[in-house]
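Colleagues,

Please find the record for the two-part complex below.
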Amino acid sequence: MRAVSWMAFAVCMLVAVPALAAGAGDHGDPIAPVVLYLALILLAAKLGGDLATRIGQPAVLGELVFGVLIGNVFALIDNGGLGQIRENVTIDMLARLGVLILLFETGLESTVGQMLKVGLSSFLVATLGVVMPFLLGWGVGAWLLPDHGVYVHIFIGATLTATSVGITARVLKDLGRSQTAEARIILGAAVIDDVMGLVILAVVTGVIGAANGGGRLSYADVGLTLAKAVVFLVGSLYLGVYLSPRLFHVASKLKARGVLLAVGLGFCFLLSWLANLIGLAPIVGAFAAGLILEDVHYRDFVGRGEHSLEELVQPISSFLVPVFFVLMGMRTDLRSFLEPGVALLAVALVVAAVLGKQVCGLGVVGKGIDRLSVGVGMVPRGEVGLIFANIGLSLVVAGEKIVDQSVFSAVVVMVIVTTLVTPPALKWSLNRPKKVKTPAAPSRS
Amino acid sequence: MRAVSWMAFAVCMLVAVPALAAGAGDHGDPIAPVVLYLALILLAAKLGGDLATRIGQPAVLGELVFGVLIGNVFALIDNGGLGQIRENVTIDMLARLGVLILLFETGLESTVGQMLKVGLSSFLVATLGVVMPFLLGWGVGAWLLPDHGVYVHIFIGATLTATSVGITARVLKDLGRSQTAEARIILGAAVIDDVMGLVILAVVTGVIGAANGGGRLSYADVGLTLAKAVVFLVGSLYLGVYLSPRLFHVASKLKARGVLLAVGLGFCFLLSWLANLIGLAPIVGAFAAGLILEDVHYRDFVGRGEHSLEELVQPISSFLVPVFFVLMGMRTDLRSFLEPGVALLAVALVVAAVLGKQVCGLGVVGKGIDRLSVGVGMVPRGEVGLIFANIGLSLVVAGEKIVDQSVFSAVVVMVIVTTLVTPPALKWSLNRPKKVKTPAAPSRS
């Protein structure tokens, strides 16, 4: 009964605050709408997280679903006021900071050495997980859009390649599995397939440019893209491992409060910026920064009684990470499911996206690893797919748009569905009874 | 020697990163410039804080001064690239969030009951601290700008009234004095003079509107402004004290991580938004939220081993608060000191601003309170003065602008100087040897 009345109260708040907000003008401090939105987002995140947890699901699913609900309801009832929440620039930026912090935090839970141990598996998982969805997406395009050219089909394949690591990282964290071998393989593979996606994008747009006569495919450009990415990853990891202990040792001499957190965040932000500079996603830099930093580097701080970096980052992550997931939910325009001509293509793309990544399990080297969970963990597609689709909107071959509005909507639906199915699917897959094949797996006594 | 080489390295970084950044285009993720700016701001904050601490000053002075340095140097050498840092909208919003968090954190360190104990003192301090600078500013205007009308003189007086509480709150925190009676009197008075400033603004613009024939001074409007502010403050404190324990008790049933932090921040954000809604500064709402929340309200959380709200807010504050102070420094355009015709007016305004608040000490009721420190703590002027000056820029009486460009520049200089002198002055005043007048003061053995 108490839980019910609490829910009723919370729902009343979610309705009453917007009603109050509608009466407010735009005068005063520009931070005012932002803090109202943040209060609503935090409320929605915790209510959603509570409900999801109660029905045995990862909290992130609740954040996404509550985001979808309030995003679509606000847009419907109050398009001028609270409907603006999903277009607010500051909220968008806070969400982007949130996902950087999430990946940094995820990286902190592993070390470079642990990642190298699963490096071969990650590489094979990434390669299989890029090739298979690419071919399946191409096939779906050829089957359902026979009137369009082969470049359209290739491009559709390309939108399915890259895993969005945020969802999986968050589900693993919600379930307390971030430090398992499966988690490391998935996270490593997600970073590697980001690089592969980048190369594919360079090749595909180069090929299309060449076909269109307007440009040409320069192998040098493709090679350069690949080389920059590899140099960044290898270079930042090696240099970072060398520099990080020295950096923190010097920083520990600074007589100011909060130095450990400032240096840690500064390092994360700098690598995120560098990753973007060479054309990778900033989250790749944030994850690399987290991998590089290890407890032992900042023992000077912890030794004198300060909190560890993980402990310090956690409240920032509690604040900003839900902003990302609730906003992702809010941006899910349910109307895109209803667009005519989209449904069949969307369903086919979802099937190709999900099945395509199931071959990933075959890339795992070594015994006792839960291959199905690796495949499921690679399923979510996110920003990268949307970025590809966006670029496709502006590409033209022989007067034909590479990505038209209905293909774009189908890609959006694919991103939504793969994002929403992953939390429950991954939870099921990680917790299902497994055949006891290895001595490492505990018996279920 | 090691400290010297570290400084050299840090200065090299501050030069090298901008040089790298200048080569970067605007492609890629929009979060990229923001994270670069954040990394630089955090670096500058900690270096500045370190230097200030080494020479025995509050860390915030170093953050401000390093902000002034890099802001003016960046603007000079790279106006298109890093010079944009002080105009970046996201950095601005993060700084605004930072000062809300700072006032929330400051409020958390006191309770409503403790504030009521010093309520009379705060009220008298605020009243004296509004009347005296107002009269002095009026006098300065009449003396130095005899060609301008009396409304110009009145308006100049009004820009000197309201204390900017951020600086003082931060200095008190840096020195570990946030929980002293002096701190409570100053913070309470700063909240009250914000309300008084609001009423004065309503009266002055009403009078000017009436004089100009374009509007009329409605006593009802002035009364309404005052009533709304008082109802908000009294209402939020009373209702808050009643609701807060119940809210946290219910929230403690939520099965999700980070509920305490989310509910605490959500409460702070909601009151900040409400304060803005009725025309007060959002920081007043954030401070009120901090006052209302007390440890005992969330014992359900802490009792099961979670961190307290203060501990959870602290890393967020370490991250965002320096953004506010470094940005304040960066926005200090040193060229405004050099504008012709500004110097004398600026000096006179600074003197009026500093001396005007020294009568505040007379408002303190009770013994054993350091009256000089109360007066010094009320000195900094900030956003409110600038907001007044900005409004004045758009007011016209009989074809004459109420605030012209040189008056505006003089107000900016007044804000800068009162901000920069307060940290060292307050530190000196709090630590000076005092006559042992009361049994409460410990002997210096």
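Chain B touches chain A through 69 residues (CB under 8 Å).

Comments are welcome before we finalize the supplementary table.
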